[in-house]
């Protein structure tokens, strides 16, 4: 089983979220690839069983600038065989714009035909001890979705 984890991070928080998910998937025997979003190609997601996207939200709910092409390319990619989840760090101070990119990537992946394996997960600022079990549940949800497809 193969998982592609794509992240964008300004502060390092989302890279940390992506690395936690990677460790959790690795522990379940999944082969993982971790890629920074500016280096990612949407088509590469078709090479795996699981896609995890970890974007940051910038300014007033904006997507990561380095991820705009990747975001747009998702709609030109058939992801019907892929189970996905989107998680990301943000600052709850931003209110309605808090982790908005997480929600937008979640919707874009669904429109590209991928199967949602986990509900979008928001992490307030840097992931802490309270977030570990939430991320474990997120990862387990992805694994359960894959098992149901088998």
TrEMBL record:
Cofactor(s) the record lists: FMN
Which InterPro entries does the UniProt entry name for this protein? Flavdoxin-like, Flavodoxin, Flavodoxin/NO_synth, Flavoprotein-like_sf
Q: Cite the GO molecular-function annotations of the record.
A: FMN binding; oxidoreductase activity, acting on NAD(P)H
PROSITE patterns assigned: FLAVODOXIN_LIKE
Keyword Magnesium listed? The answer is no
Report if keyword Electron transport is assigned: yes
Supply the Pfam families for this chain: Flavodoxin_1
Transmembrane regions listed in the UniProt entry: none
Keywords tagged on the record:
Electron transport, Flavoprotein, FMN, Transport
List each copy of the Flavodoxin-like domain by range: 3-143
Function of the protein: Low-potential electron donor to a number of redox enzymes.
NCBIfam families this protein is in?
PRK07308.1
Hey, which family's this protein in? Belongs to the flavodoxin family.
Q: What is this protein called?
A: Flavodoxin
Record the organism.
Answer: Levilactobacillus koreensis
């Amino acid at each position: 089983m193969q998982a592609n984890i794509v992240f964008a991070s300004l502060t390092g928080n989302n890279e940390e979220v992506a690395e936690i998910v990677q460790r959790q998937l690795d522990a379940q025997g999944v082969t993982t690839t971790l890629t920074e979003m500016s280096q990612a190609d949407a088509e590469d997601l078709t090479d795996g069983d699981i896609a995890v996207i970890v974007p940051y939200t910038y300014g007033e709910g904006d997507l990561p600038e380095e991820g705009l092409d990747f975001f747009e390319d998702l709609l030109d990619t058939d992801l019907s065989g892929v189970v996905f989840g989107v998680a990301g760090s943000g600052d709850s101070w931003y209110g309605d714009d808090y982790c908005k990119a997480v929600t937008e990537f979640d919707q874009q992946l669904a429109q590209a035909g991928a199967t949602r394996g986990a509900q979008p997960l928001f992490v307030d600022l840097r992931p802490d001890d309270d977030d570990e079990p939430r991320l474990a549940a997120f990862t387990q949800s992805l694994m359960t979705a894959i098992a149901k497809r088998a």
